[in-house]
Amino acid sequence: MQNRKGFLIAAMSVVYLNTYAQVPEDALRTSWTTPNGTARNQAIGGAGGSLGGDISSNYINPAGLGLYKTNEFVLSPGFSFFNNNSNYRETKTSQSGSGFQFGTTGFVFGMPDRYNPNKSTAFSFAVNRTADFRNRVTYQGQNDYSSFTEAYAAEISASGLSIEDALNSNSISFPARMALYTYLVDTLTTPGRGTEVVGTPLRYAYLNDTAFLLNQRNDVETKGGITEIAVSFAGNSKDKFYWGVSLGIPILNYEKTSVYTEEDASNNTESYFKNAELRETATSKGAGINLKLGMIFKPVNALRLGLAIHTPTWYALKETYDASMYADLENYNAPSTVDVKTLNGGYLPEYKYDMVSPWHLLVSGSWVFNAVEDTKLQRGFITADLEYVTYGSNRFHSGDEEDASSDEYYNAVNKTMKEIYKGAINARIGGEMKFNTLMARAGFAFYGNPYDDSNLDGNRMFISGGLGYRNKGFFVDLSYSQRITKDVNFPYRLPDKANTYASVDGSGGTVMATVGIKF
């Protein structure tokens, strides 16, 4: 058996290779965002689309800023935690974590018209953590159905390249090439089937027409988030009609580390496979731009009707990819290790790409109790939002104009996202009871399933509550939001058979405090 280290030719000195790391899950994680903002907004389930009078309007419906006639500074620190329970092929595993959080922080400047008390404008500058990627998921179980090496075997077979050419090809993914390097993928010739590319963990089963059994485990940890800067302008006409526009500049920082292991569960020392491990770390950084437009109409003092639209966010991102693979193939080949630098001239590969998030359409309504002009005399409200998000419209585009070959890859990923994701409806409802300077609040939110396959259960539910105090230009709000989530996680995807996945039931909470001063 020839050593494949000899197949690594001088072309490996090229720093940038046209193999790409973006997958559909990358787009979903940035667009499947949930209630955030000030403690007040989180306490009412995030249902602030028609309510207004809160700096969170920058990120929901900027028309709500039109209700301001005074200036305000707001600071919103918080703390969050999570627990994930995974079920993979009837084996259950748990993970947990916690960390600092922050909600909407910034300024609002209300500017009444000195000549017309029923007209005013407002300007706002705010910062908000619109997405928190901090999470850990672990799952493991026994699999007699598939191996992660089948994905790489299928990729190499579909390319039509020989083993030697595939090992050096820029069109083959780094994990598939590492699988070739370590002999986790190789050719196999059998009577009646001829020569084909197969995963070595299944080699013994193919040769002896017998079953296989693998222990599989996947540890996935994500960090980072999206911090969005908002600059907004809003207006008020006759205290009946409010409009607003917000320019958003989201700054994305994301890191994903995964360790996938697979081992022979048969204890057969002649099976050509003992164990393998794939370690991957992908770091994405960049920024984007979006626009939010909104209006609120008050047909009567107590009723507020809102409408808002959020354009897609256009991100310009740069990703750095690192990976290593280890394989112990018993009597088939000596244990070996390879990392991505070996296949990339000693450098970590980097990718520049653009990502486009979905559209958001929001309709909302609120009813204010004792809706008099003096807010101190109001007795509370009930409010609700309905939001439609076009998850299937997520898109990737090449960020390198000189790399025309990437278009084919991104077109394929975009087609996949259109097939596996769908539009979903999010519903939020909340209310407040006001007792002079004290307020009690509660809310509920349900975020619909973005997966087109009805067998994939993905949704998020939030139950929240909080207290507030307002007096003489000073206010402080406290909230707690309990989340209950359902999602799925795929350790690998196969093109020619049903994919196995872990069901992930999550829970957790966020404690938020908002302190503000009117001036």
From TrEMBL:
Protein name (Swiss-Prot/TrEMBL): Aromatic hydrocarbon degradation membrane protein
